[in-house]
Specification:
Elements lengths: L18 H11 L9 H14 L13 H14 L1 H16 L8 E10 L9 E3 L4 E10 L5 E8 L4 H10 L10 E4 L6 H10 L2 E4 L15 H11 L13 H21 L1
Parallel strand pairs: 1-5, 5-6
Antiparallel strand pairs: 1-3, 2-3, 3-4
Helix pairs in contact: 1-4, 2-3, 2-8, 4-8, 5-6
Length: 264
């Protein structure tokens, strides 16, 4: 086991990584170099920001300087480090639940969220939800764990943007054969996905014949994942200028959720 010799000087926040969570990440990173700055403190600062919604410049002083934290966040976002950690942790959680490391079924859905006055790239107006901003388009497995996320302008219809989302699954999950969706994904998308991606897109519809509320098969799973994200204030709106940054924030929220689940 790799030991990080840098002494922690931070206050104890509820968002901080536990010893076992940090060991899990450290073993994935395989980082045994002597560093001027403690990587654990960097991760703790990032998770603090995602959970509380604080601005980068308003990180508490007992964390490393915000410029340093932002530097590592940007570096790990661009070089695939966060992607890799997220992938490994997801496989660990699936194994803990007696499932194969890679899923055979996915569930797709989107969530429209407002952006800030500062705006940013790729914004639009979702006429159905009456939201000016962006959509978080995700695919999850049957445990509700994130497989892929694509953030795009809110004015793009689900059936039009979904192919781009599902295309990211191809080559990543060799066992994946079926993806469940709601009625917004009907139409030529089903044949397009089957012919080009070799996935079966199954649309689960709600009928007017049901007198009482009924949970629809599989669809509730992705809706529950969106509800998990509500406990992370950085996701209450889309505060990010770039959509890639927005996607990374979603991954980090899911990463912390999975780390917590592993520890249980």
């Amino acid at each position: 086991m790799v030991i990080n010799h840098i002494k922690l000087k931070m206050k104890k926040y509820s968002t901080n990584l536990t010893e076992s969570q940090w060991e899990t990440i450290l073993n994935i990173l395989e980082d045994n170099r002597k560093r001027k700055h403690c990587l654990r403190e960097i991760f703790d600062a990032i998770f603090y920001l995602v959970k509380t919604g604080r601005q980068w410049r308003m990180l508490p002083k007992d964390f490393p300087k915000w410029e340093l934290v932002y530097y590592y966040f940007t570096k790990w976002k661009n070089n695939g480090t966060i992607d890799f950690i997220h992938e490994v942790i997801r496989e660990k959680v699936r194994k803990k639940h007696k499932k194969s490391e890679t899923p055979s079924v996915g569930i797709i859905d989107s969530q429209s969220v407002k952006t800030t006055r500062k705006g940013g790239e790729n914004r639009g107006f979702d006429g159905g939800k009456k939201v000016k901003g962006r959509k978080r388009h995700i695919v999850v497995d049957t445990l509700g764990l994130l497989l892929v996320v694509v953030v795009h302008a809110a004015n793009r219809h689900d059936s039009k943007a979904a192919f781009e989302v599902l295309e990211k699954l191809k080559g990543q999950f060799y066992r994946l054969i079926k993806v469940f969706a709601d009625g917004g994904y009907r139409g030529e998308l089903i044949d397009n996905v089957k012919d080009n991606l070799n996935f079966l897109l199954e649309v689960v519809l709600r009928t007017d014949k049901e007198e009482k509320f009924k949970i629809l098969p599989k669809r509730w799973i992705v809706e529950r994942t969106f509800s998990w994200f509500e406990s992370y204030r950085r996701l209450s709106k889309d505060f990010e200028y770039h959509t890639k940054t927005s996607e990374t924030i979603v991954q980090l929220a899911m990463l912390k959720l999975m780390l917590n689940r592993l520890e249980k």
